[in-house]
From TrEMBL:
Annotated gene: lacI_3
Domain called HTH lacI-type: residue spans: 5-60
Record InterPro entries: HTH_LacI, LacI/GalR-like_sensor, Lambda_DNA-bd_dom_sf, Peripla_BP_I
The name this protein goes by in its record: LacI family transcriptional regulator
GO function terms (MF aspect): DNA-binding transcription factor activity; transcription cis-regulatory region binding
Alphabetically ordered keywords of this record: DNA-binding, Transcription, Transcription regulation
Top-level taxonomic group: Bacteria
Amino acid sequence: MRMAVTLADVARLAGVSPATVSRVINDSVKKVAPELRERVLAAVAQLHYVPNAHAQNVARPRKSAVGVIVHDVSDPYFAEITRGLQRQAAAHDRLLVICNSYREPERELAYVALLRAQQVHALILAGSGYHDDEFTARLNGELNAYQQGGGRVAVIGRHELVGSAVLPANEAGAYELGCRVLALGHRRVGVIAGPRTLTTTTDRLTGIRRAAAETKVALEHVVYADFTRDGGAAAAAELLAAAPGLTAILALNDSMAVGTLATLRERGISVPGQISVTGFDDMPIARDMTPTLTTVRLPLVGMGERAMALALGDDAVPASEPAPAELIWRESCAAPA
């Protein structure tokens, strides 16, 4: 069996010290004379030497990895954001370390501590903020310590956290959607909201409530559910049982809207003939549904790109960037019969 080539082997062939070889392959801030650098690189090529990644991670003052914490990368919302993160990371030769928190605050806190220990160059929290003051204070403690050690932090969504932020226009988009639906004449409207603990749920529901208040429509039927297809399906069944005369159901993300459409289809309820349905986010599947889904588009891939750009930037002061929302009108919503 052929023995692995070591750093010492390269040093012997190049006629330099192992420390010099280490400085060359780790791109150290300690400069190496051009002649010695060329000898080291020639020896590396001749011996087909592969550097030890763990040793490089210890040696380099600036790490190549970026830690990303999402709620669930299998969720289409986070899958699109991750595409943007990866696109920008690749442009800067950065490696992503992606962690799923599954909307569990303690798991998120543990991942931040773990990524700090791994000395990643930057941390990006891509999920919604939580209505939990104690958790937020603990998380800020971890993030502050990380920043003081030279790390950079960026978040996507409304958080009470340190670092730069990309802020999707959740409330404004929901308000525009609510105004448009109510302007069609809908008065018996049900809402399928996300988990109560998330700031994203609060912001989107606030926008719908503001539109209802301005139209003097009582928003009496709100059901909270997981931001999933199954959560939407179960919530739709609950709404139909509680308020059989509904003419519109506004689901506050597209996955829940897909579940809503499935429940209505199973019961033989036509959309939008009997009940109109809307979503939020504009997932790729929204345009392929039958009927096609009226929704609010967020620039998810762009949000990921901007968060990565903020995390990799060198601005001394944290920045906030808005991500606009756009109403996308399709076949699933019409005036009540």
